[in-house]
Amino acid sequence: MIGYVTVGTNDLERAAKFYDAVAAELGVGRMMDFETFIAWGKWDGGAGIAATVPFDGEKASVGNGTMVALEAKDRDQVQRLYDIALANGGSDEGEPGPRGEPDENGMLFYAAYFRDPDGNKLNAFLMDKVA
Known about the structure:
Residues 1-127 form the VOC domain. The protein is of the alpha/beta class. Helices cover 21% and strands 40% of the residues.
């Protein structure tokens, strides 16, 4: 089971602004806050997310093919998370909308894709019944 996911940053203050806003929409706040590392989530909740300045002192870089998926409660929250990301220094990687075809149960993958200010890729998603 995943406890938390960490993304690298070259500017912790900028990353904190971005993730503070995203975490607030998801109903969580900071659970650890150190000079070079901040984690958001709940101690007794699901997986959290953290931003850190690399321990080795080298520049943080983006993993090709790496993405953090944030589970939303509904389509409106997918839209809000996307808007919050772009308003806080993030960039667009795919506007909110359905992806693919519904499965045999009529469930559809609905998502928005964006990058944080350091270029780490995230999405907000839910499995939703076809309207």
